[in-house]
Amino acid sequence: MDSNRFQVAIVGGGLAGLTLAIQMADSGISCILFEKYKYPFHKVCGEYISMESRNFLERLGLDLNEPELPLITRLHVSSPSGIVLKHKLDLGGVGISRFTLDHRLSEIATRKGVVVMDDCKVYDIRFVDDHFIVDSSKGSFTSEICVGSWGKKSNLDTKLRRPFTKEKKGKNYVGIKYHVCADLPADTIELHNFKDGYCGISRIENNRYCLCYLTDSDNLKKFNGDIKKMEEAILMKNPFLKKYFSESTFLFEEPLAVSQIRIGYKNAVENHILMVGDTAGNIAPLSGNGMSMAMRSSYMLSGFLKSYFSHQLTREELEKEYATFWVSTFRTRVKFSAFLQVLLKNKALTNITISVLKRFSFIRDRVVQSTHGKPF
Ligand SMILES: Cc1cc2nc3c(=O)[nH]c(=O)nc-3n(C[C@H](O)[C@H](O)[C@H](O)COP(=O)(O)OP(=O)(O)OC[C@H]3O[C@@H](n4cnc5c(N)ncnc54)[C@H](O)[C@@H]3O)c2cc1C
After folding, report:
1. Residue 348 CA to ligand 1 centre (angstroms)
2. 350 vs 260 pLDDT, higher one
3. Interatomic CA distance for residues 249 and 211, integer angstroms
4. Which residues form the pocket of ligand 1, taking CB atoms under 6 Å from any ligand atom?
5. Residue 315: what pLDDT?
6. Among 27, 144, 194, 304, which one is most buried in terms of CB atoms within 10 A?
7. DSSP string covering 167-185, please?
8. Where are the domains of the chain?
């Protein structure tokens, strides 16, 4: 057998890519996965993983029931001026760092027979004579199917001339993350709003907390890219953030940052490449659920791919059915999260929204439910 030829090539080893690779291996489908960084590595993410994907991860071989991992069942939200809303999360979530989560999944994938090419950047993907050629820093590989799981932003979006890269309208956001030691409840995720952004803080493994925020990139431009100055001048106007930024012990030497994040719907199939997770559409992080969405899309795509490899679907049918599934399952969630993102950008509107939600628990329930899916 040609060692550079696979049934499926997966480009991007985050949650969507890794969970799909494991499912392919479980079904006896040969699979290669490319990840540009070397596992384990840190990633900008709030690290609150909704319970909707716990059963799925357990089926893949990852146990989230370890006592070390905090169960998160409560949500506290504050407005820029400090009005606080408290809500019980019915489904809830688990706190685990991406450093640990992605690494453990990459180990499961390798154990099950996936060729995990980490520290390997993909430069181009070409569809020639009904198969794909993936050009990477470790050579060229051939596959029958190619899956795009390179996340919110990648060199490949421009290389493949994806339509959204040419759009002038729409906002760009910046995401910043730290791990901190703080004195906070383990069962609560806190979301604190500030002008043009919000910051989440919740517990992960080893008694640490993930402190992660998203802000309009204009905020950072105003301070010539100086993150510390922006935090002091803007984030710390919120009394909770002022306390956490001044009293916590920060464990990274430098903040982890990602820029040019865009929220919204992209295309689930382009140039015959099937897109999963953030590559197909970015949900606003305040919905706290992008990771589960990424895994749900990989779960569904795995079903379509099994039908394709057992000759129940042609390539054309596979692409059409997957694209239709994506729109019907996620479009409303992505649109609703984009709406929430705009609403919470405005200081006055945020104060009003939080005051209204504070009074009416049934609206609160609906808002939280619309950002979470059912277990799968
Ligand atoms: C500030 C912020 C906070 C968030 N907080 C939460 C949260 O608390 N809970 C939650 O559920 N979701 C959260 N999210 C969303 C969540 O992080 C994403 O939805 C999720 O990571 C998507 O998974 P993915 O597999 O699609 O992409 P990713 O996890 O981003 O994985 C993509 C991978 O592709 C790799 N890659 C890119 N280009 C190439 C290339 N050319 N060659 C090889 N590899 C490549 C990247 O290195 C990366 O590892 C947050 C997002 C942000 C921005």
Report:
1. 31
2. 260
3. 11
4. 11-17, 34-37, 44-49, 121-122, 149-152, 154-156, 175, 212, 214, 261, 277-279, 285, 288-292, 294
5. 98
6. 194
7. ---S--EEEEEEEEE----
8. 5-45+98-168+265-349
Encode pLDDT of 193-250 as tens digits.
Answer: 998 899 999 999 999 999 999 999 999 999 999 999 999 999 999 999 999 999 999 9
Both tokens of 60, joined, read 């893949």
Q: How far is CA 195 from CA 237, 353, 356, in A?
A: 9, 14, 19
Architecture of the domain delimited by 5-45+98-168+265-349? 3-Layer(bba) Sandwich (3.50)
CA nearest 72: which of 178, 184, 198? 184
Q: Ligand 1 mean position to 307 CA, how many Å?
A: 27
Q: Which residues contact 353 (CB under 8 A, 6 or more apart)?
A: 343, 344
Question: How many residues appear in the chain?
Answer: 376
Residue carrying structure tokens 């405005």: 346
Tokens of 201: 């803080």
Q: Cα(154)–Cα(12) distance, rounded to whole angstroms?
A: 9
2 and 281 in contact (C-beta within 8 Å)? Answer: no
Q: What is the Cβ-side half-sphere exposure of residue 91, based on CA atoms within 13 angstroms?
A: 22
pLDDT digits (tens, 9 = 90+) for 316-359: 999 999 999 999 988 777 777 777 777 766 677 777 777 777 77
d(CA 361, CA 311): 50
Question: What is the 3 state secondary structure string of 320-363?
Answer: HHHHHHHHHHHHHHHHHHHHHHHHCCCHHHHHHHHHHHHHCHHH
CB 48 within 8 A of CB 200: yes
Instruction: Return d(Cα 366, Cα 79) in angstroms, integer.
Output: 19
The H-or-E segment that residue 73 falls in is strand 71-78
Q: And the tokens for 374?
A: 């059912």
Half-sphere exposure of 306 (CA within 13 A, CB side): 15
Find, among 11, 302, 301, the residue nearest to 150 by Cα: 11
Atom of ligand 1 nearest to the CA of 50: 11
DSSP state, 67? Answer: T
225: CB partners within 8 A, 6+ apart: none
